[in-house]
Amino acid sequence: MTIPADLKFTRDHEWVKVEGNIGTVGITDFAQSELGDIVFVDLKKTLTEIKKGEVFGTVEAVKTVADLYAPISGKIIEFNTNLESAAEVVNKDPYGEGWMIKIEIANPAELDELLDANSYKELIGA
Q1: Is 33 part of a structural domain of the chain?
Q2: Whole-prediction pTM
Q3: N or C: which end of the chain has fewer CB within 10 A?
């Protein structure tokens, strides 16, 4: 199970990679393994702004559907439209090509409320 040290994590198993004032968001390796084979990713592409905790889409796996929650607030600047035709990428590369949205961070203090890699490992018992 991969848990990159340079990312921030939520208790709902999303991750954020911060580069300047942009946060790239996806689901963790743990989340994708718990969900199983992901067959569809539905991102709410009508959203332009998002608040921390708000649902920005769903992930559909063979056995379940899970909501995706924004770990931070801000302006959505990009959706990973490649997932529309290749949802399985989330299983293969959750921290790379399987990213979901990019957010221009509105409140950097929200990042302090997220878990670091060690705290996330404790959460999932890794």
Answers
A1: yes
A2: 0.95
A3: N
Tally the domains of the chain: 1
What are the pLDDT digits (tens) for 38-50?
999 999 999 999 9
Q: Are the C-beta atoms of residues 58 and 3 closer than 8 Å to each other? A: no
How much is the pLDDT for 126? Answer: 87
User: What pLDDT sits at residue 99?
Assistant: 98
In a domain, 36, yes or no: yes
Sheet holding 65-69, edge to edge: 38-43, 55-61, 65-69
How many CB atoms lie under 10 A from the CB of residue 46?
6
Evaluate if residue 1 carries a pLDDT over 90.
Answer: no
Mean pLDDT computed over every residue of the chain:
96
Structure confidence by residue, pLDDT tens digits, 45-83: 999 999 999 999 999 999 899 999 999 999 999 999 999
Q: Flag whether 121 is in a domain.
A: no
* Domain ranges, residue 68: 8-109
